[in-house]
Amino acid sequence: MIKSELIARLANENPHLTQKDVERVVSVILERMIGALEGGGRVELRGFGALSVRSRPARSGRNPRTGETVDVRAKHVPFFKSGKELRARLNADE
């Protein structure tokens, strides 16, 4: 599901809200989550999972086309850990 599909589905399920209002709410929620992660925080959605930021150190990599060694800078990457309820629902059929 992409952002526009989420907005459309939420607008259909909540006819008292306009699509523009739903779009604004979704955008604000995502911006607040991004802001929390930018500040080094953690975003936890109970039952769904938790997002955090992890640091990756600088390393040497390899250009797959030429085989040449290249330096890869240190960076921060998002990390998602699924919640217990999400894992249980995904594995309910097994």
Quick overview:
The chain has 94 residues and is of the alpha+beta class. The chain has helices at 3-13, 19-38, 84-90, and strands at 43-45, 49-56, 59-62, 69-72, 75-82. Helix 1 crosses helix 2.
Structure characterization notes:
This protein has 94 residues and is α+β, with helices and mostly antiparallel strands. The protein has two domains: 1-41; 42-94, IHF-like DNA-binding proteins (HU Protein, Chain A, Irregular), CATH 4.10.520. 40% of the residues lie in helices and 29% in strands. It is built from three helices and five strands; from the N terminus they run ααβββββα. The chain has helices at 3-13, 19-38, 84-90; strands at residues 43-45, 49-56, 59-62, 69-72, 75-82. The chain has a three-stranded antiparallel beta sheet. The chain has a two-stranded antiparallel sheet with strand order 3-4. A hairpin with a 3-residue loop joins β1 and β2. α1 (3-13) crosses α2 (19-38). The longest helix is centred in the N-terminal third of the chain and has 20 residues, at 19-38. The model has no long low-confidence stretch (mean pLDDT 95).
